[in-house]
Amino acid sequence: MAATYEPIATQTLGSATGSVTFSSIPSTYTDLILIFNGGADGSGINICARFNSDTGTNYSTTRLMGNGTTATSDRVTSGSMIYGTVLSNATLNSNAIFQINNYSNTTTYKTCLIRTNATEVRLSATVSLWRNTAAISTIVLSPEFTGNFTSGSTFTLYGIKAA
Amino acid sequence: MIGNIAVGLYGIPVPPVTNSFDSIATVTVGAGGQSSISFTSIPSTYKHLQIRGFAKNAQTTYAGDNMQIRFNGDSATNYSFHYIEGYSTNLVRALGSGTQTVALGLHNALTGSQAGYSNVFSAFVIDILDYASTSKNKTVKTLGGFDSNGDGNIQLASGAWYNSTTAINQIVITDETSSNFVQYSSFALYGIKDS
User: Fold this and answer.
1) Is residue B62 very low, low, confident or very high in pLDDT (cuts 50, 70, 90)?
2) What domains can be seen in chain B, in order of their start residue?
3) Nearest to A18 among B2, B143, B153 (CB)
């Protein structure tokens, strides 16, 4: 059997930072997994992502959320980024795991699953679509491209290759 | 924003680690479509299994369809499932049943082939825990869904196969409506070691 699930790159923030970019992602894997652990400097800010530096309105998201009291869902159509959910404010008590299956195919749009947990705020499961058939070679993460990730936040990108 | 960090992958490599996640087999659907996905002769040498997939079916009636799982060819009422899903603005549903002939892969979250859903595929990760145990029932959990820029379904599902004495050595995945999985659908089976 072929061993897989390889770490590709990792980053730990030494100061509050607006965005983190993974570039030149090789197309040699089948799926990508991106794990974030940290927070955002500000309340009510969602973790978001863009692919291949596309800032157009080519993204959409369906979300399922729980805040300790109620379960809700929402949808973003023709957005300029994909959405996880709200991060903890100025603490490192949030995490998010992005699953980007079949990221390097050049035939279909890309579907991304995100599980986000912000201990003090809420948790969510998200599915997002990037309406582009290009292989994903760059991922940019940001608190809605307006805020900052908290110092000490960590980001690790893994690749999984099917037999 | 205070600043940005860019990580050049080849500039900051991560050292290799000892790996406990093996690729066992992959099924990629060809141009003619395929009605079921089978993994057979699954070795019992792992602790857990994971199926990672990207799929849609050929039916044009529903936006989302159900994807079902059976183990070891068992078609009797030895399964159960529950799920919670979000599929629009403030539309959350949680359902389940304790007597089923299948375990649940996805409920209403396997993309169909209606107009407007071109190039849209569901993504999913299915974990099958302690699949080789011969002393307890087998449990399954799934994260999956699709979004089509105006429609979508995200869900967390659980399933069980009430067979405590037999290791899982075969997995068959089908669509509830017996519709084919379309070209480019892919299902990859992985084994996770515990030592």
Assistant:
1) confident
2) 23-192 (2.60.120)
3) B2
ipTM strictly over 0.85? Answer: yes
Which of B53, B87, B149 has the CB atom closest to A101's CB atom? B53
- In one-letter notation, the amino acid at residue A23 is S
Whether residue B7 and residue A11 make contact (CB cut-off 8 A), yes or no, is yes
* Size of chain A, expressed as the number of residues it contains: 163
Which pTM was predicted? 0.94
Pick B121's closest partner by Cβ from A8, A108, A146.
A108
- Residues in chain A predicted with pLDDT less than 70, given as ranges, are none
Q: Which of A121, A136, A101, A110 is nearest to A47 (CA)?
A: A121
Pick the CATH number of A6-160 from 2.60.120, 1.10.490, 2.30.30, 1.10.10: 2.60.120
- Residues with Cβ within 8 Å of A102's Cβ and at least 6 positions away in sequence, in order, are A30, A31, A108, A110, A111, B54, B121, B123, B186
Q: What does the DSSP assignment read for B123-171?
A: EEEEEEETTT-SSS-EEEEEEEEEE-SS-EEEEEEEEEE--SS-----E
* Chain B interface test: which of A102, A140, A153 (most B C-beta within 10 Å): A102
The residue-averaged pLDDT of B176-186 equals 94
